[in-house]
Specification:
By secondary structure, the protein is mainly α. It has 18 helices and no strands. The protein folds into two domains: 177 residues, no CATH class; 167 residues, Flagellar motor switch protein FliG, alpha-alpha superhelical domain (Annexin V, domain 1), CATH 1.10.220. The longest helix is centred in the middle third of the chain and has 52 residues.
């Protein structure tokens, strides 16, 4: 029960009674019936019977409305995100509780069913939109009921004046004022305030539903629970945001990481094939002969063990690398003479802290997570040491979830090395 509504309503009635010197002279049954029944009759004219009855059901929300705390919702969403990351999206169905908001339950079920993200967003946004419309209509009718009470208060006052009944002027005015007083009090304590209270309740409910949509879409896309917590905190005032930077549930223990061993095995088994594919892609392209010769020279150096496969792939254009590794498109590489020689991915550890921080600002975070799966412990420690504790926790957690294929690790390292060379060409970092 909403204590503020109870206190406000009781306080308003007491103020009126105190000002009138008690309730003895304020009750007149006929006048009260005219005001209350007349206002309801006018409401029935303005709305359908179902809408009119729904107004009284909505009034119950003023006293007994269920409140969902944005902070509690944030914690609940982080918990669901942890479950999804640990056990998969399908596990969310069993994680739902009976006391979860029906809107959140519906959204989670759509996600579990594998509904397209765009369709989930469309369904939830449509439901939110028409929920707001229904709330707006109910508030409008409640506000109208308050106006009707004032109007019928005036009508009751006019009826007393017209009928007269042989009363003197002062008595007649006093009797005529009662129905008008009833109408104004009913509007001042019920019609107007209740409508505004419902507006505030509706706004809070809409905010919570928008947070639910944001949370479910983030869970569906596989966002990190800490990122989801940060997204939802943006909906709240700073003083109401979660104080604990950690999620409600502890992060899962990282699974054994075999990516570095798999990467070495992959290079041992597939390096010859990859070099051949690179040569074929370059020789059949429309590139200049000088460029083809440079790539061929790099391929020979790779076969001799002088450079790594990543250093060879740095030289390829986006279409060529896509053809070889079937990965996303990347900007074309610069000519060989603009690329420092004998610099591999592990050489990033030789950069200063300032240079590493500069590189990290330019690198895609997903590429960094994947690339570090195949990096040495020393390089991981060096790079993570140049991040905030929050970002370190995020990267480590992502690395515990991601299991990239060797080809994807090589491509991610290639992208980062290309960005390193770009900063070198711009004179922002030095390569020894």
């Amino acid at each position: 029960m909403d204590s503020a509504t109870i206190l406000g309503l009781a306080g308003g009635i007491l103020v009126v009674l105190q000002a009138a010197g008690g309730a003895a002279g304020l009750y007149q049954g006929t006048a009260l019936l005219v005001v209350v029944a007349g206002g309801l009759a006018a409401l029935l004219i303005a709305a359908s019977l179902r809408e009119a009855l729904n107004v009284f059901a909505v009034v119950g929300n003023v006293f007994f409305g269920r409140k969902v705390s944005p902070l509690d919702l944030t914690r609940r969403s982080v918990g669901l995100a942890e479950t999804a990351r640990r056990e998969g999206i399908l596990a969310l169905e069993g994680a739902l509780a009976k006391d979860d908001d029906p809107f959140l339950t519906q959204a989670i079920q759509l996600t579990v069913d594998g509904t397209e993200p765009r369709l989930i967003m469309d369904i939830l946004s449509t439901e939110l939109h028409y929920t707001e419309k229904r709330h707006e209509r109910s508030r409008e009718l409640l506000q109208r009921l308050g106006y009707n009470w004032v109007i019928f208060g005036a009508i009751g006052a006019l009826l007393v004046l017209v009928q007269g009944g042989g009363q003197t002027g002062g008595e007649l005015v006093a009797q005529a004022g009662l129905p008008l007083l009833y109408g104004v009090v009913l509007y001042g304590l019920v019609g107007g305030p209740f409508a505004r209270k419902l507006e505030a309740i509706s706004a809070r409910e809409s905010l919570v539903k928008k947070m639910m949509i944001e949370a479910v879409m983030a869970i569906q896309s596989g966002d990190n629970p800490r990122i989801i917590e940060h997204k939802l905190a943006a909906f709240m005032a700073p003083k109401n945001r979660p104080r604990d930077p950690h999620p409600a549930l502890p992060p899962p223990p990282p699974p054994p990481d075999h990516s570095r061993a798999e990467l070495k095995k992959f290079l041992d088994e597939k390096q010859g094939l990859l070099v051949r594919l690179v040569r074929e892609a370059v020789q059949t392209s429309a590139a200049e002969d000088a460029y083809k010769a440079q790539v061929e020279a790099a391929a020979v150096r790779l076969e001799r063990g002088e450079i790594s496969l990543v250093e060879l792939l740095v030289l390829l254009g986006e279409d060529m690398r896509k053809e070889v590794l079937h990965t996303i498109q990347h900007p074309p590489p610069p000519p060989l003479e603009q690329v420092p020689r004998d610099v591999g991915f592990e050489d990033i550890g030789k950069l200063s802290d300032r240079e590493i921080q500069m590189l990290l600002r330019e690198v895609d975070q997903i590429d960094l997570v994947v690339a570090l799966k195949g990096a040495s412990d020393g390089l991981k420690e060096k790079i993570l040491g140049n991040m905030s504790e929050r970002v370190q926790m995020f990267i480590n957690e992502e690395m515990s979830y991601v299991h990239a294929q060797p080809g994807r690790v090589i491509d991610a390292q290639t992208c980062i090395l290309k960005q390193l060379f770009q900063l070198w060409r711009e004179g922002q970092i030095e390569l020894v």
